[in-house]
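Feature request disguised as a bug: please show the residue count (473) next to Solute-binding protein family 5 domain-containing protein in the output. Example input:
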Amino acid sequence: MKKEEKMKKVLFKMIVFFIISTSGFSFENEINNLFEDEKIEQSDSLVIEQEVKVETIDPILLRDTYSRRATNYIYAQLFKIDKDGQVVPYLLEEYKKNDEMEIYCKLREDIYFSNGDSITAQDVKDSIENYLKNGYMNDLYSSIQQIQVLNDREFIILLNYPDHELEIGLTNPLMSILKRENNKIFTSGRYAIEEIEKNKIKLKKNKYYFDQSSIFENVEIKGELNSYQRLINSLNLPNYYSYDLYKEDIETAKKIGNLRGKKIVKDTVYDIISLVFGNKKNYSLNDRKALESLLNREATTICPQEMFDIKISFLEKNYSRREAIKILKNSGHFEKKIKIMCLNTIHNRNFAQYVAHDLIQNGLNVEIEIYNLDKFLNKLRSKDYDIALYNITINSVYPLTSLEKTIVGELIDYDLEDSLLPFFNLFKEERNKEYKERIIDKIFYLTYSSRYFIPLAHKQTYILKSENIVGMK
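Example output, currently without the count:
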């Protein structure tokens, strides 16, 4: 029996190796450690893997999709989005709008922080007003003037102007309710923080949380750049949850393993695979448009059409090949090497190679620079690069937050943010769904029209998880 099982493992590894090596992806060390034998046991622990590690669990510092996702497991907010996509009270027992400038709120009685302290209206005031003062993306909540505490359970949210997006905005982890004490954070959600390591965080069940239905006592959230490694883990580990997979990853999983007991879920996150520009070389607007005109790409619209019910803005091709080459020659870019920085993942390296191929075919000298996560993010945020290939993540539930994150966290352009703030506020004041979508499309177009980014492809992301995982965010 053992011999037969060993033969099955060997055969499985050979099949995986064949599929990976013939799939068109380039790879170097991806599969070196994929097939280490692991002792698989049923347990009360859940493992969650995503493409990028958690950078922070402090809502004040949140500026990336991956950390925001992790905070869903450890914090509660005043409202939440239920399984039907509706905004419903979470920490609140009741609420009502006194008028367009005031919202009355009353907290549940059975809510506690992870240290056992009751969650009070003063804690809500401290959490929200601290974010309004110090939060990385606090402009998103400029409609909130202050929290007026009535008693331990009741308070009023006072507004600067009408905000018809406020309830959904208050479901965002940026608006998490927490307690700070002696440089420690006590959480309000399903799990408490046990340990923070370099590439993962360990969580334990919050014994004071009002809903104890979760079957997992412990949760680990890890960063794993290698999508193939996440696929192998998905097929082998019993309590496992993998984010940030593309359709081609799911198809590979179907080919190499039995998906019985697994569930494939479309996530609300889309990746816009894009080129962004750093400070190492000066590219004029015409230079950027000329480079774009030389590229063959999948995308036809600026952002994913699937996010909208309306027709959205199309990408442009401003110049013919001859015109684009002439512009780039006049700017001196044919005399200098163009360096394209990318993250060391299979998908990103492939896209960087496609871009380099198109530019080299047109006579340009191109070099690809591949970096690990920490170095890539350091260079991206300091704008210490020539051109970067980067995944701009857009959450269809929080499009405004995604745009703000892109502008201040990835493009690092505060002048652009200031110029777009009137559109952000207009979006919050608008009630009509079609008009709201047109405003989001307009913000995308204005950002693209100055070529702050050049979209190459849109990727719907998927979750692959064990079917027994229910009730998790």
